[in-house]
Amino acid sequence: MAALNGPTPAVRAGTLLEAWVLPAFGIVTFLMLWAGCTAAGLAPARLLPGPGAAAAEFIDLTHTPYSGAVLQVHLLASLMKFSLGYGLAVLTGVPLGLMMGRYRIVEWAIAPLYESIRFIPPIAWVPFSILWLGTGFLAPTLVIFSGAFSPCVLNAYRGVHTADRAVLEAAQTLGAGRWATMTEVLLPAALPDIVAGLRVAAGFAWQSLIGAELIVGSTGLGYLIIQGESNLSSTVVVAGMITIGLTGAAIDFAMLRAERFVRRNWGQ
Amino acid sequence: MIGAAPILLLIIAWFAATGPLGLIAPLKFPSPAIALASLETIAGPGYASAPLAEHIETSLSLVLAGFAAATLTGIPLGLLLGTSRYANACINPIFQLLRPIAPIAWIPLTILWFGLGGGAKIFVVWLAAFAPAVINTQTAVRGVNRTVIEAAKVHGARRVNLFFDVTIPAALPGIFTGMRLSLQACWMVLVAAELVGAYTGLGHVMIIATEDLDSGMIFVAMLCVAMLGVAMSLLLARLEAWVLPWRR
User: Which residues of chain B have a CB within 8 Å of the CB of A240?
Assistant: First the structure.
């Protein structure tokens, strides 16, 4: 992203070439290769639709229901699961990380358990989430939660350690209680790390959501593309993938803005 | 390093809650006895059309193949993007265009392309591991200390020497970071792909066990995935320590 969103460099020889000509050349070459291969029949339409066919399907999906709903409704279903799972992970993971960073006893009790489940890929929770929560709306939510939880905990924990000991002790000397120390000293100090963790967590959560929807459920973008695959409809699959990519990029962009905002106001 | 007491407590709680206290139904989570019985079943006669060793072999070889392919293609591309500004300006936008599409979202398309066999899995595993390998290699090459490069040039290093004797050794720690992230992505995507559809493999065991409502078997398969992930991470860490002795 840095290459695209970075500050515009001062005008100098080669800037135009590097900033616009070569990137445009790259993208146009890519699209032409895609269009060319599909038009020339090197990639049959049942395997890979051309850009035009994918775009037409994309527009078609917005007003013709596919596997039960139009594209917007699938997107909304995915976003609702995402918000629920991600929200839960943030609301539990960040306080837990802060507590682990602040209190030795919590760290001693939680760290080994955390370390032992960390290596289980979030997607591997799909079977148990089906046993525990059924095949409805909640099963993917648990998977999203397990994807987002780990970065939330880890970054809040790290963030506490970046807090200045002197400031912490000064606050305590001036009579700040446990709650005030936590909310007014440690939380602001840890905020840049926490927000960086939230961005990573959002990426994992989105990816876990799609994975979970491929396997369980009857709504959402993941469900849409796996249905497209079952019906051997490559256009639906690619249109769905583009929606997934655009939404993922939008989420990441929003988190990046939040991260920059926090860095400006609370960063060192 | 970390206390064993909380883990022991958890294991005792597991025994108690699933056994004598009966707090957790066997359908929701297996008792240790059920888990052990499942392990004996899958290790001996087999489950989901093959014994455990065969499932492990399938999953492990697919991860290794995809990971090796991603390392062998991703690191050279990362080196190219890191050293050549023009190549970077040309190729990076394509990369940024495709990257937001989660690797997992490629699974349906790869099933259309390759079917439910190993090919589709190697492709998605490669795809998932490719991006971390490229990005971290590129960042590492960009981050090589300019002073060191200038010093090497002053001392008459040719481009080839500069590349092999200065840039690559200096970038190796970053490259290994990328490989570590790649490895995690590999397991995540492989399990997802096997859950969606496969003939053998640990993800396949999990989905069959879910259909049979066999919580013990799910537990065994999850444990195998976690242990294989840990083992491969440890091996990679050993390799890193061996390749980069000066970092110890």
Answer: 105
Instruction: Quickly name the fold that domain B33-247 has.
Output: MetI-like fold (1.10.3720)
Question: Can you tell me the distance from the alpha carbon of A201 to that of A192, in angstroms, rounded to the nearest whole number?
Answer: 14
Instruction: In whole angstroms, give the CA distance from residue B35 to residue B19.
Output: 12
Rg (CA), chain A: 23
Q: Supply A128's token pair.
A: 């148990």
- Name which of A108, A22, B115 is nearest A4 in CA terms: A22
Name the pLDDT band for A128 (thresholds 50, 70, 90). very high
- d(CA A177, CA A155) in angstroms, rounded, equals 24
CA separation for the pair B161, A228 (Å, rounded): 52
pTM recorded for the entire structure: 0.88
Does residue B136 have a pLDDT over 90? yes
The answer to whether residue A210 neighbours chain B at the CB level (below 8 Å) is yes
**ipTM of this predicted complex?**
0.89
Q: Is B140 on the interface with A (CB under 8 A)?
A: no
Alpha carbon distances (Å) from B232 to A116, A145, A189, B184, B195: 15, 25, 35, 9, 21
Of B72, B62, B192, the closest CA to residue B133 belongs to B72
Interface of B with A in 13-52 (CB under 8 A): 27-29
Boundaries of every domain in chain B: 33-247
